[in-house]
Structure formats: structure tokens, C-alpha cells
Automatic annotation (TrEMBL):
The gene is LOC111486182. Keywords: Disulfide bond, Plant defense, Signal. One of its GO terms (biological process) is defense response to other organism. InterPro entries: Allrgn_V5/Tpx1_CS, CAP_dom, CAP_sf, CRISP-related. It comes from the Eukaryota. Belongs to the CRISP family. Residues 26-158 form the SCP domain. It comes from Cucurbita maxima. Residues 1-24 form the signal peptide. This is Basic form of pathogenesis-related protein 1-like. The keyword Transferase does not apply.
């Protein structure tokens, strides 16, 4: 009996080394924390998770699962999209990618610098947006697709994000 207990314990402990710890960073909290950290840096209030937006994002992500193409949905919400050719892109990583576009935003002119795009960043920090819903899927081509939807809409050309 004691040999059985010791063997079972060794199997359990060795199993812990085979299981990769999950640092997925794909939960609603992870998406919110990443967004709200960027918003706080420019003095904008936090976003709140919205199940309806998350369901919309999930529905659209499921449609992109076959090809992982970055095509805007044309739906009722503003959205940010990210894609990676491998499966390592997390939801928090996608937000970090969008926030990295801050360097291309010129607040004084309220424009993106040069030919660079900064609209993903300005949507993350858009003052009037209050709700957020995101989704992430692993694509059949081996990639990862991430979408975040925002309400109310942002990136109104005549307005500043903050």
C-alpha cells in the first residue's frame, strides 16, 4: 500500500513538470487591465467589460478562424484587430501591440505621423468609449486572430481621443 502511495505521488509530481503553466493573458480581466493601463497614462477613465460586445467579437473572430485575415467587420462597433502567424499572440499581447502605435500619434496635430497608422492606439484610449468586448481564436492556418470591439465608437476624425 505504501509503495502504491509513493508511486502515485511521484507520478503526480512528475506530471506537474509536464504541464506548461498557463500565462495565457486572454481573460476579460487581462484585456481590461492592458487597455486601462494605457488609458490611465493619458488621464482617461477605465473601460468596462460588456458581454454583448464580447459575443459580437467572438462571432466575428469565429468567421476569421479559417483565414486569419485582418478585415474589419463593418459592424456597429469600432474594433481593433491583430494577427500572428503562430499561436503565441495573447489578448494582452495584441493590446500591447496596439498601444505601441502611440509613438506614431501626434497629439498637437491629432494625426498619425508619416504613413504610419495609429488608429488602433487612439481607439484604445478614446475617451468616449466606455465598453469593451474581445475575443481570440486559433486559426486553422496555424495563426492567431484577436479582435476587440468598443462602444461607443471612437476615432471620429474631427475629435481628439483624449
Amino acid at each position: 500500500m505504501d509503495v502504491f502511495k509513493i508511486s502515485f505521488a511521484l507520478i503526480c509530481v512528475s506530471g506537474l513538470f509536464l504541464v506548461k503553466p498557463s500565462l495565457a493573458q486572454n481573460s476579460a480581466k487581462d484585456y481590461l487591465n492592458a487597455h486601462n493601463a494605457a488609458r490611465k497614462m493619458v488621464g482617461v477613465g477605465p473601460l468596462f467589460w460588456d458581454r454583448k460586445l464580447a459575443a459580437y467579437a467572438q462571432s466575428y473572430a469565429n468567421k476569421r478562424m479559417r483565414d486569419c485575415k485582418l478585415v474589419l467587420s463593418g459592424g456597429p462597433y469600432d474594433e481593433n484587430l491583430a494577427w500572428s502567424s503562430d499561436r503565441s499572440l495573447t489578448g494582452a499581447g495584441a493590446v500591447k501591440l496596439w498601444v505601441s502605435k502611440k509613438r506614431f500619434y501626434n497629439y498637437r496635430s491629432n494625426k498619425c505621423v508619416g504613413d504610419q497608422s495609429c488608429l488602433a492606439y487612439t481607439q484604445v484610449v478614446w475617451r468616449r468609449s466606455k465598453k469593451l468586448g474581445c475575443a481570440r481564436v486559433k486559426c486553422t492556418n496555424g495563426g492567431t486572430f484577436v479582435i476587440c470591439s468598443y462602444s461607443p465608437r471612437g476615432n471620429i476624425s474631427s475629435q481628439r481621443p483624449y
